Amino acid sequence: MTTTNLRPILFSATLAVVTATSLFAAGQRGGAGASAPQTVDFVAVGADGQPVTDLTAGQLTMKVGGKDRAVTSLELVTFGAAASALPAPFATNAMSDAGRSFVLVVDEESLRPGLDASVREALAAFEKQISGHDRLGVFTLPRGTISLAPTTDRAKFQAAVAGIQGRAKSSMTANDRLCHGRDVLTALASIMTSTNSQGAAPTPVVYISAALAPPTSGPASLGAAIECQLTPGEFQRVGLAAETVRAQFFIVRPEDASEAGLAEGLENLTGVTGGQLMPIGNAADGAMIRIARETSSYYMATFAAEAADRNGASLRLELRTDRTGVTLRARAGLVIPRADRGSALTPQNMLRVADVQRGFGLRALVVTSRNDGDAKNTVKLVALAEPVDPAVKLTAAAAGVYDPAGKLVAQWTAKPEELQRSPMAAALAVPAGTYRMRVAAVDAQGRAATVDQDVTTEMTPAGVAQMGSLLVGTSAAGFQPQLKFTTEAEVIVYFELYGRPAGPFGALVDLAATVDGPALVQAQPTGVISRTIRKQ
Questions:
Q1: 430, 381 in Cβ contact below 8 A?
Q2: Does the domain made of 2-24+344-535 have the CATH classification 2.60.300.12?
Q3: Cα separations (Å) of 534 from 5, 459, 497?
Q4: Beta strands in 152-245 (DSSP E)
Q5: Where are the domains of the chain?
Q6: In CATH, what number does 100-215+228-295 get?
Q7: What share of residues in the chain are helix, strand, coil (percent, to 5)?
Q8: What is the pLDDT of residues 300-344, one digit of tens each?
């Protein structure tokens, strides 16, 4: 018996792009895996306070753990204003695609009532200086009255800032200051650890405080009413947390804490974190505006780590440049994870662990379509993936699909010829549901990268019909999918339509600057009915 199954109607539409502006942001690479070269991030600023963006590896000298290390490569990652009000349609491990993730920590109990106004004004001005892709988190300590994880939701950020209050006591004993300092440092280390972006971009951490007690140098005198001890180890633990999460640490002081003991603790914290201590200044051009500017770019310097370096301990980091008028800002130490004594870091192994790898930039887009003819696996997920840098050559790649419980339910391994295509395509059939797809790859330098994207397999309603995912590309060789656009004069939009009714049926494809904005360009798609003939 011969049966005819109607497949989707395949539509495409060509849209002339009316501007040469890039639709999506660009990206660079992040950290490295245990068996790959190690990277160190740092910031370079000129005498005018502006980021320096033209350093070369030959202008740097580096010591790690007291040993000279050659800088084998140097990359600049730049965060600019978002090229579009829309989020990037693809998932990426490239930091400039993802934006910065600021952790703003306010010590309310160091701020006298009334001083909080300058903090709120500075944070409000700071919000206006950064991209909509940047995430902002607000935490107050040591009691934690406000705890907002980094988010792009500006309304939540504004509400959190509005709630900041000065809660300093009118008078504090020496013991009160020590207890306050101990609680602050414990909370600060915890906040950095809990907001760790798992080796993504360095995390800008801004600690706003008017005063912090210095560490005690020895045991309290006999008869002294001292209940709390604030040891150097408490400060060092914050420094280690900053190294572990790769924090760019800034300490902002709302007023001159020149009274004995009030500034010394802040200066000690500056030293152990490799941070900067600065007065808050005015809202228009003060510390927060400077922080927004200095964190707008950073460098990734690569060196060959020795086996002995990979011990999970803090190694002293010394980074210098012979470039006149340039200041390098880096953490005082570097923590390199312990070497993996297990199997090599292959794409298949990366599918079986949760660790995120950012040895080079990788982006991916998952599109869905129906998988007719399979009663169990009714949906096909297609992951399109490519390196951010076109010069990167992949030597191995794999993709996996995970259910909500984290179980790997389907996987794909790239063949050599598939690695030559850009983007490469991984197709996996699964039952309808909600999943996470991971693409893992290794490049010719042995660097590892992963990228994850959540996906729901539902089709999009289109009147009485349903649509699969939109796919955008160019007309090269008929239709060539493309994830990122720059100066292309036109693009082609491809989608599948299921259940088209009989009779006239209209459709339009719009190109707009925002989700609900007016169409900049419209096109009417043309369709071709695809049929599958099966013999039984």
A1: yes
A2: no
A3: 8, 25, 21
A4: 203-208
A5: 2-24+344-535, 38-79+299-335, 100-215+228-295
A6: 3.40.50.410
A7: 20, 35, 45
A8: 899 988 888 888 888 999 999 999 999 999 988 888 877 655 456
